[in-house]
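Why does residue order matter? Because the sequence determines the fold. Keep that principle in mind as you read this record.
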Amino acid sequence: MVSVAKRVLVILDGAAEPVWPWPSTLEAAQMPALDALCAGGTVARVATTPAGLAPGSEIGIPTLLDLHHHDGRRGITAEALLVAPDLSHRLPDHEIRHLRGHRFLAIGAERPAIGEVAALATHVWADGEELAPILDHDTVVIAAPGAAAGCGRLLGARVITPRGATGDVGSDLWAKTRAALAALPTASTVVVHVGGADEAAHHRDRIGKVAMLEAADADVIRPLMRAVNEAGGVLAVTSDHATCVETGLHHADPVPLVVGGRGVRRAGAVALHERLVAQARVWDAPFAPIAEVPA
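Structure:
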C-alpha cells in the first residue's frame, strides 16, 4: 500500500444525480480541472449511504426539524420564516430557532410531536448513534456551518468555517480554498465541503447547479489539484449523495469518485459523471483506489 503524506478530499454536496436519458448536470458542466484529474487518475464509484443504519441514542435534547413540501421538495428560507410563528405556537414547550433554509432547531425536554405546519410537512430527524472521536486535528474539515462541520467536530477533526462560507449557491468558494491551502502544510488530510450544488438541486435549478459545479471546478478543484501535485499528495473528488435536479430529492445510490495523484494508477472512465461510471466498481471509502497500488 502506498504511504500518502498529503490527502485532500473535495465533497461536492449533492452533485451526483440518477441516470436519466438526458445529460446530468455533471455531464453538462464544463469542468476542465476535474477532467484533467480523471485523465490521470482512477475513476470509480463510492458507496456513501450504508443500508440499514442502526438506531441509537443521541447526546443532549436538541432535535432538528426539516420543512418540506408534500412532494418531498425542501421548503425555502422565505417559507420557513413565514411559518416560524406557527411552529412556535404548535410547540409551546420548545424553544424554536431557525438555523438556515428549511431547518429549525427545537430545544425541549421531549421529541416534538408534529407532522405538519401550515402547508409544509415537518420531518423530525431520527435519533442517531453516538459518534466516536476517531479523528484528530491532523484532519481538517473546511465547511460552512451545518452538517459537514458538525460531523467533523463530532469525529474529532479540526473544523474551519471561513468568513463568507454559507453552504449555499452564494458561498465564497475562494475563502474555503484559501483555508484549505493554509491547512495543508500541517495537516495530513484536508476535507473541503462545497454545498451549493445540493441547494440548487433542491430548488430544481438546473442552470444554478451547473454554474455551481463550474465555479467549484475553477475556484476549488483547480488550485487544490496544483497544490496537491506540488506536495506529492493525492486528491479525491466525489459527492456525499445524489440530489436529483428534476425532483429536488436525495438518492442513496453510489456516487462517482475520482482519485488522482502520487501512486494512483490510471483506471476507469475518462470523466466524472453518472452514466460513464454506472457499471464501475463500488469502493467503500474515498481514498480506496490508492490501496490497490503496490508501493
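The longest strand covers residues 255-261.
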